[in-house]
């Protein structure tokens, strides 16, 4: 007998300026839907209803409105950028639906109608900036996309850096999807900053990294680049040489060596090809569907209030490791990690936290005074590492 089916909204931009990421996230959602539908663990299945806003910000609201009115969905998985999420929140709050948001984001938000599965700023920005201060420099040049992800991420960066006596040397922004990056790259080469912090999104970021690599090579410069958003499929888009060496902060990398991840990556490659790569956002999208399925099973209902209660504090052994939703703010406990991009569209992890960390979307526990102490400036790699930095073998 066929299992009863629950309508599920999937909202990802398969076209537009960040289409590659949208397609990867949708593929993971559909993979998770198939696994739920085929599993004897669940006495229900999902019927996915796909919408493509094409990266047009107002279209996200329209897509969700259509899903709610026409398909009667109560749960929506989707949105890659914060601009799109901000469009969706008013309608899910007004109609009392749940948005399961997979992407990393800038924080400073908490809605009863959003389950934030992607990393909060204490999982990504804080460990990355701490590493920069202790091992690279307290001065940094910022290049980013002109929207809320960059604005808020750079604000946090500025607060931490200035508290440590450092400087934001420049902050240069491009509109989403803009690929005319030469003027920013020329300024970087002329000024020779000790580090570049990249919050560009999609095609803008790929064009920037290629241009910066080429210009640095011609000038004989090596300028460390740091990111909270770069992922494996994007390394392939950037190109083999230009993509190598970026220091990236993320809760997930395809190279994580745990059994759950090895099995997940094997299933992904069997489905999408041996030359495909999993990203943090596609993995988180998969986790969104699995957390939702488990919450519905525990609640015995797809009712939003019941599912929200059932999702809280339920520990799930995900591909990135243990993960669970904090009942206080609807964000997830995650394990922060730092890695460098290497050949083969991969990352080599060099640090990870000892355990999943509580989400702190408002950075209420961030002690800026702790950054005021004198930090090493371009430290000798052979020097003793600070206590927080545990090298992963």
Core attributes:
seven-stranded mixed β-sheet; Rossmann fold; 393 residues; alpha/beta
N-to-C span: 49 Å
- Strand pairing plus helix content: what structural class? alpha/beta
| Average pLDDT level | 93
Beta-strand residue percentage = 15-25%
N-to-C SSE string, H for helix and E for strand: EHEHEHEEHEHEHEHEHEHHHEEEEE
Describe this structure in words.
The structure is a single chain. This protein is α/β, with parallel strands linked by helices and 393 residues long. It folds into 2 domains: 5-119 and 256-333, 3-Layer(aba) Sandwich (Rossmann fold), CATH 3.40.50.2300; 122-252 and 337-371, 3-Layer(aba) Sandwich (Rossmann fold), CATH 3.40.50.2300. Helix content is 39%, strand content 19%. The chain is built from 11 helices and 15 strands. The strands form 3 sheets. The chain has a 7-stranded mixed β-sheet with strand order 7-6-8-9-10-14-15, covered by helices on one side. Helix 2 (57-70) runs parallel beside helix 3 and helix 7 (203-219) packs across helix 8. The radius of gyration is 21 Å and the shape is globular. The N and C termini lie far apart (49 Å).
